[in-house]
Design brief:
The chain contains 7 helices and 7 strands, in the order H-H-H-H-E-E-E-E-H-E-E-E-H-H. It is α+β, with helices and mostly antiparallel strands.
C-alpha cells in the first residue's frame, strides 16, 4: 500500500474545490455560493469532487493506519525480553538472541526484518506482517536464514555501539539493531555502501536481505 503523489494532488484539488464557493463568499459577500453551482453540470462536478475527496481521504487514512500498526509491532520487539521469547544463551549464540534490520523503503515506509536465535523471524511493514517459525517443514530455509542473520550480528557486535533509543534510520541509511541478553546495540550504514559491497557490514546486510527473501518466498508458497 503506497501513498502516490497523484492521490495527494487529487486530495488537494478536491479540498480546494470544496472550499471554493465559501472562499468566494468570503471574498465577495454579495455573491451567493449557490450561484456558483447554478448549472446542472457544475452541481454534478461538485458532487463528484466530494465523492473523490472522501474516497481518497479514506485511502490515505488506511495507509497511515497501516504505518502506525507496523510501527507499534516494531516497537514491541524492542521491549521484549529473552525470557519472553524463551531463549537462553547457547554455545552457538552465547551473547546475541535477536537481530533486527530497519531498511527505509521510502521517506514514509520502513521495512523491519527480525530474527531470533532459535530460528523464528518476523517482517513488519505497512500493510505487511509475516511470521515464520521452525515448525513448518517448508520453512527450513527461513529458519536457517534467521539463524544466519543472528550469527552475523554476533560477529558484528564488536563494531556496534550501545544505545538506549531505537528511532528509524535516515532515508539513505540502514540500521542494524543487535539485542544481547542485557542491552541494545546498533550499527548504522549508508545503503549505497551496503548495496555496492564496499562496507564492512556487507555480510550482515546480505544475511538480513536473504532472510527477507526467504520469508517472502515462504509466504508465496503458503
Amino acid at each position: 500500500m503506497v501513498i502516490r503523489l497523484r492521490d495527494v494532488l487529487w486530495t488537494f484539488v478536491a479540498v480546494l474545490a470544496l472550499l471554493f464557493p465559501f472562499v468566494v463568499k468570503y471574498a465577495a459577500p454579495d455573491t451567493s455560493p449557490a450561484l456558483l453551482l447554478g448549472s446542472d453540470s457544475a452541481t454534478l462536478l461538485y458532487c463528484i469532487t466530494v465523492v473523490l475527496a472522501v474516497l481518497i481521504g479514506r485511502k490515505i487514512h488506511i495507509v497511515f493506519t497501516a504505518i502506525m500498526t507496523a510501527s507499534r509491532l516494531r516497537e514491541s520487539w524492542f521491549a521484549i525480553s529473552p525470557a519472553d521469547c524463551k531463549i537462553q544463551p547457547t554455545e552457538e549464540f552465547p551473547s546475541v538472541f535477536c537481530a533486527i534490520m530497519d531498511r527505509p523503503a521510502s521517506k514514509l515506509l520502513l521495512l523491519t526484518v527480525i530474527a531470533l536465535a532459535d530460528g523464528r523471524s518476523r517482517i513488519f511493514s505497512p500493510g505487511i506482517t509475516i511470521l515464520a517459525g521452525p515448525e513448518a517443514p517448508e520453512g527450513a530455509a527461513v529458519t536457517n536464514a534467521a539463524k544466519a542473520f543472528v550469527r552475523e550480528a554476533q560477529r558484528a557486535l564488536p563494531r556496534a555501539v550501545a544505545i538506549s533509543d531505537h528511532h528509524r534510520p535516515r532515508s539513505d541509511s540502514v540500521r542494524f539493531y543487535i539485542r544481547t541478553y542485557d542491552r541494545l546495540w546498533v550499527i548504522e550504514e549508508k545503503a549505497a555502501a551496503l548495496m555496492n559491497c564496499t562496507s564492512e557490514n556487507t555480510a550482515l546486510f546480505a544475511a538480513a536481505d536473504n532472510l527477507n527473501t526467504e520469508i517472502f518466498r515462504l509466504a508465496r508458497l503458503r
